[in-house]
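NAD(P)H dehydrogenase (quinone), Archaeoglobus fulgidus. Tokens?
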Amino acid sequence: MARILVIFHSITGNTMKLAKAVADGAREGGAEVAVKRVPETIPAEILEKNPGYVKVREELESFEVARPEELQDYDAIIFGSPTRFGVMSSQMKQFIDMTGRLWMERRLEGKVGAVFTSNEMPHGGKEATLLSMLLPLFAHGMIIVGLPPAKELYRAGSYYGAASTGVPKEDDLQVAKMLGKRVAEVAEKLC
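Tokens:
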């Protein structure tokens, strides 16, 4: 049974919802799944002014904070981040930047990797974000899994990974589940 880590950053809960759907899909694909979040770097007094964050704070904080060194313990890692100015959030970037030792020791080489994102605007740079998130995975020598052509992709997601605009709709969640299941199936074949 493949072990999969779904790791995400979210402030308003949209990326968290996608993370949960990705995890459901991976479980459906037969994997053992852990869902964790990256450390939040925005000061609490600023976060508390964001009504979207206040609504989901307790649920977000219920997820364990991941440590970079634990990535090597999984067969597959699926990263999720909100889109910020066409790239991943600084919190996710900082977390990935802390994997330098794993890179030097080639600890993630051959592991399966995939990505997902959410943003607030239809043309807010989701595909650019997905691509920016894939680059470090390539650098680590990970085996990248995207989404094959499917009717669900016509309205939600991308070949590069799952995505949503605003609160994920049902088709967004279906594509996220598809991604999780596909990663689980590929990881199982490689284990």
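The two ends are 8 Å apart (CA to CA).
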